[in-house]
Specification:
Residues 56-70 have a biased composition (Acidic residues). Residues 1-88 are annotated as: Disordered. With 172 residues, the protein is of the alpha+beta class. The chain has a domain at 77-164: PH-domain like, CATH 2.30.29.30. Helix content is 26%, strand content 26%. The chain is built from 4 helices and 7 strands, in the order αααβββββββα. It has a 4-stranded antiparallel sheet, with helices on one face.
Length: 172
C-alpha cells in the first residue's frame, strides 16, 4: 500500500505570499467609475469643459495635515503627559490618549473600565494599559531617558488617575 508523507489538503493562496490578501474580503469596487459612463466632451457645457481642461491643484501636505487635525479640548482637571521619540501618553479630563508615530487612540472616560501601569524593576519603560468596558485592552510604552523617571511618572499618573476615578465613583 502507498502512503504519502505530509498534508493532504490542497495549497491555498495565503497572506504569506500576498500581504494584501485577507480571506473573505473582496477588494472595493470603484463605485463612481462603474456607475457613470464617460460623457463625451461635445455634450458638456462650456463651464464643464473649462473645468476639465484646467489642471487640478492639490493642497500642500502641511495645509492638509493642519485641516485634518482637530484642536484638542482644553483639560479642566489634572493632566498627565509623557512622551518619547515615537509616542506619547496623555491623561486628562477627556480621557486617555495614546500616540505612536502617526496613529492615535483616544479613550473617553465613559468607555474606560480600568487603567493599569507597569514599570520594570531595572528598565526604563512605563507601560500603560487601558481596559475598556467592552473587555478589550490596549497598551502603550514610553521609554524614559533614565531609570528613575518611570517610577516618578507612575506616581504622577497614579495621582491623576485617582482623581478621575474618585470623581466617577462619588458621582454614581
Amino acid at each position: 500500500m502507498e502512503h504519502r508523507i505530509g498534508q493532504n489538503s490542497p495549497s491555498v493562496h495565503a497572506a504569506g505570499t500576498d500581504p494584501a490578501y485577507v480571506p473573505g474580503l473582496t477588494p472595493p469596487r470603484p463605485a463612481e467609475a462603474e456607475e457613470q459612463p464617460p460623457v463625451p466632451e461635445a455634450v458638456l457645457p462650456d463651464a464643464a469643459q473649462d473645468a476639465r481642461t484646467e489642471p487640478e491643484t492639490e493642497p500642500e501636505p502641511e495645509a492638509a495635515a493642519a485641516e485634518e487635525e482637530e484642536p484638542r479640548p482644553v483639560a479642566d482637571g489634572p493632566a498627565f503627559e509623557v512622551s518619547d521619540r515615537r509616542g506619547s501618553i496623555t491623561v486628562d479630563s477627556t480621557g486617555v490618549t495614546f500616540r505612536l508615530d502617526d496613529e492615535t487612540a483616544e479613550f473617553g472616560w465613559s468607555e474606560i473600565g480600568a487603567v493599569e501601569m507597569d514599570t520594570p524593576r531595572f528598565g526604563r519603560r512605563l507601560t500603560v494599559t487601558v481596559y475598556t468596558t467592552g473587555r478589550r485592552s490596549y497598551d502603550a510604552d514610553i521609554e524614559a531617558p533614565n531609570r528613575s523617571l518611570p517610577k516618578q511618572w507612575a506616581a504622577e499618573l497614579d495621582a491623576v488617575l485617582e482623581s478621575y476615578f474618585e470623581d466617577t465613583e462619588t458621582a454614581g
